[in-house]
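Title: [Solved] Cytochrome b mRNA-processing protein 4 3D structure

Original question kept below for reference.
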Amino acid sequence: MKTITWVKMLASGGIMCIGGPALIYYVTPTEEELFLRYNPELQRRSLERRQEKQEDFEQFVGRLKEYSKSEKPVWTAWEEDVSRRRQLGVQAELDRRRIEAQEAEARKQEMRNSLR
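Solution (posted by the thread starter after getting help):
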């Protein structure tokens, strides 16, 4: 009696453990099939942005390799790099605004001088 129960349990477990992933693998479309289901406009945009996405991914992987060379954990190195980049970006934005303000002031002075 108990042997039949164990056989049923093992058979149903095997079907679930092997059949489930096999079913998922069978019904999941490949990237090519998904791409072909796009409308032509999306296909064109996807092809145009493919190179840009590939370059972004390569930069991301390069930064991860750089972070992994550090003795710090990767997430700590990433946070430090993000804060450093943010500071550089803020400083660059401030510099750009200061230069624009100086140029605007120079134009105003030039207009004032030309009216005299």
